[in-house]
Amino acid sequence: MTGTFYVQSLDLACGALVLAAVLVLWRRDLRAIVRLFAAQGVALAALVAVLGVHAHDAGLVAVAAGVGVLRGLLLPLLLRRAMRAGGAGRETEPLVNVAASLVVAALLALLAYAVTRPVVALEPSPATHAAPVAVTVVLIGFFVLVTRRRALAQVVGFLLVDNGITALAFLTTSGVPLAVELGVSLDVLLAVLVLRVLTTRMHTAFGGTDLDDLRELRD
Amino acid sequence: MTVLLLVPPVLPLLAAGLHAVFGWRRGLAWLGVPAAAGLLGAGIALAVLVSSRPRTGLGGFLRADALSAYMLIVIGAVALLASLAAPSYLAAEKAAGHATDADLRRYGVLSQAFVAAMALAVLAASLGVLWVAVEATTILTAFLVGFRRTRNATEAAWKYVVICSAGIALAFLGVVLLHFAARHAHVPASGALDWAPLVQHARALDAGVTRIAVALLVLGFGTKAGLAPMHAWLPDAHSQAPAPVSALMSGVLLSVAFYAVLRVRVIADAALGAGFTRTLLLIVALASLAVAASLLLAQRDYKRLLAYSSIEHMGLLALGTAIGTPLALTAVLLHVLGHGLAKSVAFLASGFVHQAVGSSRIEDVRGLLARGPLVAGCLAAGLLALLGFPPFSLFASELGIVRAGFDAGLGWAVGIALALLAVVLAGIGARTSLMLLGTPSGRPGPGAATFPAAPIRPAVPAALALLLGLAACAALGVTAWPLHSLLHHATAVLEGRP
Lengths: 219, 498
Description:
The complex is a heterodimer.
Chain A (H helix, E strand, L loop, with lengths): L2 H24 L3 H25 L3 H28 L12 H18 L1 H6 L3 H4 L1 H17 L3 H23 L4 H29 L13
Helix pairs in contact in A: 1-2, 1-7, 2-3, 2-8, 3-9, 4-7, 7-8, 8-9
Chain B lengths: L1 H21 L9 H18 L5 E3 L4 E3 L1 H30 L5 H23 L3 H19 L5 H34 L10 H6 L6 H18 L8 H8 L2 H30 L1 H24 L4 H22 L2 H32 L10 H4 L1 H14 L6 H15 L3 H26 L23 H19 L5 H11 L4
Antiparallel strand pairs in B: 1-2
Organism (chain A): Actinomadura harenae
Subcellular location (chain A): Cell membrane
GO cellular component, one term (chain A): plasma membrane
């Protein structure tokens, strides 16, 4: 892979990654949000594959396939199932409207560039130059987590955070050690399964999955 | 060596497997007791073995030094108390129609796997594996928090999983950044997240990246340790879980998460100097104490009261760690064990009160001492221990933290902490004295059909657990000499001395 082509495909994958996150802020239809999340999973897998091909690392390309299967297929499948069980539909009015969310996303991107300066300074390579993009995805994920009111949208927020962190791990050091990566993937998968069961229980206990109903426990 | 290192996580896993196959039958309900006793025994054996040098096992995957051995003893001790009390507690839950046989089976599997995950967390040689184990505890305890499947329990479980997973995700971001810094400091790729090489190469870590990583790690593991500002899940989760699980979560899980902060601090102080983590931990400590004090004052629910007391004690641990002198660090370690014992006794006793009264509101409980002298006496003694009264070991450890604080020139922070502790004392004292003394003719709670007639008499093993916990906590307060050498070596680990 030549130098320019490598940088271009890297940037393309990172662009797709952050675009999917921003579009999650824009859309309210839960089905569309899950599709966007699946697309982001594919972009992440492509990113890892590009890094693997560039480094002539067959192991990394295999990891990319694993990432694609987990984040592009398996997790979206689980979310779709949960949606069917929870009688999905549209996000009720979010706490922050779409226009304001997009402005916040821009501010979060600036913040991401500011905090990752030491990372880029330590090793100014094309991959680490993309680190702020990964951190932007993390921050947008947190924003979705705190402003969305539907249980499923919160889960997607959590998964966006996780996608962003995974992207950062591969951009900076071609990934954490494999044993850790496997453990993390398993934890994420199980966390989503647990949240799926809890969504169903919430549906039976509260008659809906609107998180505004969760206000019995307070001081 | 590998065998001894494998015992603590594998014994509870075996118990979990047996529960999965055979359910929660009469005899099997006690399975947790030998598993916890074995864990405790392995912890003590490791404590003796690793005093000279740390041991590794399973190809470097597991590693035990004095600090790991000490944490294993804490986990074993609290798990022993919880598993002694669990059978009668769950039998009462089932009799009251709150749980089916399937629920009990799930309880057995999840609670044992939870203990195994904690044991793995403190034995992990690498920060990454520690992270995986800590996140696993969140997943395993989610359904234990939501055990009763009521609206409240489901709400608590949801908040617990979402907030803790998000918080611990921050910690993972820190792990990724620390890994990046470590690879640049020429730490070999195979062990770039292992404690020993990280501490060895700490001085070569890039300061800018390490600073972000450490802040994220402290905030992330702090979430799981119930430290402010991400503590909101704790009172809900700890008050909704069944009492033995509350005891484990409050007594050890918080400390296991704090153990990660302690380990990270060693690396951070070598890489960045002591100032950075000290400032960070001081802010977190005082914020946690302030949150706990303000919410304890008007608390109406006795289980939530105990949960806020956990936030207070985690704040004290953070304060002691911020001070960071050998005296303070030894006191922090002793405080971990003392708090684990006293808090599990208090949670177990309050669980039996809750089952008898049918309400966790403070105003529904009056004149406990007359109704169940043993349970009420143990609850009172546990609360006194948590408030730092002698002869319990929390008195000694709090005194140690305060003295070390004044010696280190952090008198102002210790002064604020002491003022907040006085507020906590007033709050808990005023709320609970009515519960314990009062006249038994108080307004009965909604589910209190039998109140005030039936006396509260826990089964013999449960009573034994309460008394054993209090006796151990008091004995450690009088003399900590059996632990003296272990505490000495563990403090050395915390100071970054090999």
